[in-house]
Design brief:
2 copies of one chain form a homodimer.
Chain A (H helix, E strand, L loop, with lengths): L9 H9 L6 H6 L5 E2 L5 E6 L6 E5 L6 E2 L1 E2 L4 E6 L5 E9 L2 E3 L7 E2 L6 E6 L16 E9 L4 E9 L13 E5 L8 H4 L3 H10 L7 E5 L12 H23 L9 E6 L1 H12 L6 E5 L6 H7 L3 H7 L2 E7 L5 H13 L5 E5 L5 H11 L9
Parallel strand pairs in A: 13-14, 13-15, 15-16, 16-17, 17-18
Antiparallel strand pairs in A: 1-2, 2-6, 3-4, 3-7, 5-6, 7-8, 7-10, 9-10, 11-12, 12-14
Chain lengths: ~375, ~375
């Protein structure tokens, strides 16, 4: 087995697929293997549900759901593909009820119905696959937010060599998640750590620290307006998270060494932070971003010359079939109208992780370049 | 909201329960809230499944499954309890198909059918709840195992103050998982980091580094005998994991500063490591452990006086309704017969995490005591 198929994340899936575990033989025969990815890039999905009348497969690689067929033992199955190398998401629909694959531990947890994930590897490893390169470390912190009066989770990626090159300081990327996500999602689903490892190994990215905070505001504040919730998040990030990171990590300070990017809700947070505080964040990226309303946007873009002088990068990415595409076109039109320098990165795709993993990989080479 | 309800782990659940996420109001009304833990410690479980004929709740707090009832909109629900403070596990059984709660992101992933988890808090916070005390950090590594020729995941807990007290060195506990688990399970399900934070804050545990490796052996070796798989794991731990930990962390070396404990399969691994290498591990714990066969055990216990001289702790814990209880009684009888000093910790309970969280909490005060 090649190394690149294994990671903290993929190990779980691989372990499952290959049935490595030390179980009694009788149990092993009865366990259902799903999903099974063949060398030909076809995937077989299986579900044991003897009493079900109808089982469908829904997935982000299917335009319409596919029926599974049942054998005499009540094991439902369907084989699809071959598929291009990618991390796909899917659910089963059992007599109308959408569920994650109950035997696949690689689950994308979500507020309503969690989805299962499956990685189809490429002939050459893709940018989100674990490769035999030096690996950074992901740190899980619990920090006390004074501004929100609550203890919150925080994920931090340090690049390979961080533990041993103890005099070196690093630039920092603040990477923000979407409304259905948590501080875990950029690593568990987005594979940010794997993407960084690979980009750094190929000299496509500066070695950097990536800070992935938790972006939601505690209950009680749920009735706040969107703008006030964003302001509470910005205060937590600037007054609690950034000082915590300074205390715990060897970072380079100043806007030329600090970037903020986010997706969807996190994109709007990044826009507010970067446009509102160019003295803190010199590099700004918004992926499939929610866009502040016209009045707030006018405020944020009120000083175009100052923004042009201070921001080293303003990068707007959106898929053409994203439900936020029109909002992003309005944002881009405003930037054009005000002569604010930016990069418009309009691509194929909808509002989903296949797009966001690529955006992260594509923005990394642009960050922290000294001769911009 | 009190701090102690929030952690990297509990945040996900809490966020979900409280419906914090920024969703459109129309969507929010339609989302199903499950599980909902009341102030009275009753829990309501809900599932939207209009086409289902029969939905049951199975859980480790129920002796038999409980039916849910359906309302006119196809929303099934049942309220149970009040329950004692604990982290419980449950599934829904929908027309015979066992599934995790599709809207609860707190999932215990598992080889066959994943289970959902729900925390019922106590009036006073229990030892596994996040409390307003200093928090350590969990580090996620990917390391290359030379002995297994594969890249594997590794979780490492460092105690509060590790990042700032940069001259201090710490003892190390190697904490091994069971056969259905991965390197994540001791933190995500077992809450080892939370238990350590609380025990250290109460001066019930020495500040220590906890190393949680991945305990399975890659495929291809699946046909090896159990003893050979254990030997391959021991080689990986001693020749790859331990040097990696020495390079990356400020540890204290030597058996008086090194402990190994594990549960089930990991208990057998710990017994083989600790009894086989008392020159490396001075403190040994086996939780609900699988027990090596008679011949191998004879080898491991061949030099009682040497073990008594070298081991500072040999701690055997098992629940009386555990399917491995008889095997552990045989092990204890052998230790008695050979006059090998040990602690027999026989408790209520079966083969499950409610027991193992407690065992970890109970063994911590015994580790690394200098005047043993």
């Amino acid at each position: 087995m090649s190394n690149r198929q294994l990671s903290g994340h993929a190990i779980v899936l691989t372990m499952f697929i290959l049935g490595i575990c030390a179980v009694a033989p009788a149990q092993r025969q009865r366990s259902v293997v799903s999903p099974e990815v063949g060398a030909d890039r076809k995937i077989t999905f299986r579900l044991r549900a003897p009493e079900a009348q109808k089982v469908l497969l829904t997935a982000n690689f299917l335009s319409e759901s596919q029926p599974l067929t049942k054998d005499a033992e009540g094991l439902w199955a369907v084989t699809v593909g071959p598929l291009a190398p990618e991390i796909y998401e899917y659910n089963f629909v059992v007599d109308g009820l959408s569920i994650p694959d109950p035997v696949n531990p690689d689950v994308k947890v979500w507020r309503r119905v969690s989805r299962s994930m499956v990685l189809v590897p490429g002939d050459e490893p893709t940018f989100f696959e674990v490769q035999p390169v030096p690996h950074g470390t992901v740190h899980i912190h619990a920090y006390h937010s004074q501004s929100l009066d609550v203890t919150r989770g925080l994920y931090v990626y340090t690049p390979p060599g961080y533990e041993t090159e103890t005099l070196r300081r690093y630039p920092v990327l603040y990477l923000l998640h979407g409304s259905g996500d948590t501080e875990r999602t950029w690593t568990v689903v987005g594979r940010a750590n794997v993407i960084l490892d690979n980009a750094i190994a190929q000299h496509q990215a500066e070695p950097m620290i990536v800070v992935m905070p938790y972006g939601h505001i505690p209950t009680g504040d749920a009735d706040r307006s969107r703008a006030r919730r964003h302001a509470a998040f910005a205060t937590d990030l600037i007054e609690d998270v950034m000082p915590y990171v300074r205390r715990h990590y060897r970072i380079r300070s100043g806007p030329e060494h600090t970037a903020v990017t986010g997706l969807s809700m996190g994109g709007a947070q990044a826009l507010r932070l970067g446009l509102g505080h160019p003295e803190l964040f010199g590099w700004l990226g918004a992926f499939s971003s929610a866009v502040p309303g016209a009045e707030e946007l006018d405020d944020l873009l009120a000083e175009p010359e100052s923004l042009n002088a201070q921001l080293k990068l303003l990068w707007i990415g959106c898929g053409k079939r994203d439900f936020l595409f029109e909002a992003n076109q309005r944002l881009l039109a405003e930037l054009e109208a005000k002569d604010i320098e930016h990069v418009a990165h309009l691509t194929e795709g909808t509002h989903e992780w296949r797009v966001w993993r690529r955006y992260l990989n594509e923005i990394l080479p642009l960050l922290f370049k000294t001769n911009h």
